[in-house]
Amino acid sequence: MKVYLKEMDPSDMEVVMSVIEETKKVFKHMGIDQWQNSYPNEGTILNDLKDKNGYTINVENKVIGYVAIQFEPDPNYNEIKGAWSTTGVYATIHRLAIDPNNRGKGYALKAMDSIETIILKKSVSTIRVDTGYDNEGMRNLLEKLGYSECGEVRVNDGLRIAYDKRLTYGKIN
C-alpha cells in the first residue's frame, strides 16, 4: 500500500485530533509519559495548520496519521545536553502519530521516507527530532532509519532524547 503525505486541510481537523487522542491513550496504556498532559491539543494542530507545517499521513485516500514538519529553527533545540552531530539549517519533525488501528503495518517507516523527501525538496538536508525516553517505538524507528542520538533537550512537557540525521540528495523521488 502506498503511504503518502499531504498538507493538512481544515477539513482534516476532526480525524487528526482523533488520531492524536487515540495515540495519547495508547501511550498511557503502554506507560509512556509523553503527551500525557494537554499537549498536543487542538490549538497546537491549528497552529501547525496556520503555519503550513501540518501533514496528514494517508493510505488509499484515508488519513491514518499526522506529522508536523517545521522549517524554522526550534528554540527548544538551542540548548542540548550533548551535541548535535549536524550543523546549519535543519527541519524538525514533531507530533508523528499513526492511528493505533494501523500500528504495526510499517506505515510510520514509509511516512518517514515521505517526510525526508519533502524536506529534501525544500533544499534542507538535516533533520532534528526528539522523543520521550520511554517511547521505544519511536526510538527504534529513528535508529533503524540512521538517526544519531545526540543528547537531551527540554521541551514544554519535559526532557526528551534528541536525534538528528544528514540526508542525501540522491534520495529524492
Structural key phrases:
alpha+beta, 4 helices, 8-stranded mixed β-sheet, globular, 173 residues
Question: What's the total helix number?
Answer: 4
Class per helix and strand makeup: alpha+beta
Spans of 5+ residues with little confidence (pLDDT < 50)?
none
H/E element string?
EHHEEEEHEHEE
- Describe the largest sheet: 8 strands, mixed
Strand line-up in the sheet with most strands:
1-2-3-5-6-8-7-4
Structure notes:
The protein is an alpha+beta fold and 173 residues long. Helices cover 29% and strands 31% of the residues. It is built from 4 helices and 8 strands. An 8-stranded mixed sheet has the order 1-2-3-5-6-8-7-4, with helices on both faces. Helix 3 (107-121) links the parallel strand 5 (91-98) and strand 6 (126-131). The radius of gyration is 15 Å and the shape is globular. The two termini are 17 Å apart.
